[in-house]
Amino acid sequence: MEKVVIKATKRSVTGKQVRALRRAGELPGIIYGRNMEPVNISMNAHDASLVLSRTTASSLITIDLEGKEFPALVREKQRNPVKKSFVHIDFQAVSLTEKIRANIGIQVAGLSPAVKDYNAVLVTGLDTLEVECFPQDLPERIVVDISALSKIGDGLYVRDIVLSDKIKVLADADEMIVLATAPKAEVEEVTAEAAAVEEGAEPEIIEKGKKEEEGEGEEEK
Question: Which of 93, 109, 124 is at the close of a domain?
Fold first, then answer.
């Protein structure tokens, strides 16, 4: 896996003064971890944004803090609501010798024959998968190929995902990821037909019972 590095320096500026830091082309952040005190940091906004825009929450990033390297994961990306530019980043320093738990994003890919040939509607369940492994073994994303969904009723579940033997999946094996279901119109039509049958059948049974009761009464007379 390619080593991704973001250079940073310690930051003493906090509060409202951070705005001036941003105007100067710097991106503020913080790095914290189990075996270290939180450190306020500053990064070159342009260089850091190029890296952060192509990484996910499970991407391992090395923070080069004034010559000392910290393997880290991004825990929060704050953006400007209008410009959508990064305004603050939270990093969590991790140990490469200790396993961690993380939620990996699920990406659906491919073309489902059930959709193409039968107009199926894809219903998604999980959009992330919880796993446990060493930080360097974390996948950036889990790609699920839906080309195996050939007909309505076919689905993919956690048990169908194949990952490296270095990764332990913590989610329930029977949890659904994606399911090919019948189009809404067909479901409504079937439901309406079933309701009509039920409504039509019920009076017949009641009427039949009445006739039997009346017949029984006449016999008794």
Answer: 93
Is the overall model pTM greater than 0.85, yes or no?
no
What is the rounded CA–CA span in Å between residue 213 and residue 205?
12
Spell 26-61 as b/e; 16+ CB within 10 A means b: bbbbbbebeeeeebebbbebeebbeebeebebbbbb
Pairing mode, if any, of strands 168-169 and 128-133?
A: antiparallel
Q: How many structural domains compose the chain?
A: 3
Q: Which domain holds residue 167?
A: 100-182
If you average pLDDT over residues 83-96, what whole number do you get? Answer: 96
Q: What are phi and psi of 109, to 5 degrees?
A: -140, 160
Handedness of CA 94, 97, 98, 100 (dihedral sign): positive
How far apart CA 145 and CA 107 sit, in angstroms, is 9
172 and 192 share a domain? Answer: no
Nearest CA among 93, 85, 91 for reference residue 45: 85
**Mean pLDDT score, 55-76:** 96
Mark whether 76 and 130 lie in a shared domain. no
Same domain, 166 and 194: no
In the sheet that holds 128-133, the strands lie side by side as 142-145, 100-109, 128-133, 168-169
Q: Determine contact, residues 140/102, Cβ cutoff 8 Å.
A: no
* DSSP symbol at 166: T
Q: Residues 149, 194: contact at Cβ < 8 Å?
A: no
Is the domain of 46 the same as that of 121?
A: no
Confidence of residue 171 (pLDDT cuts 50, 70, 90): very high
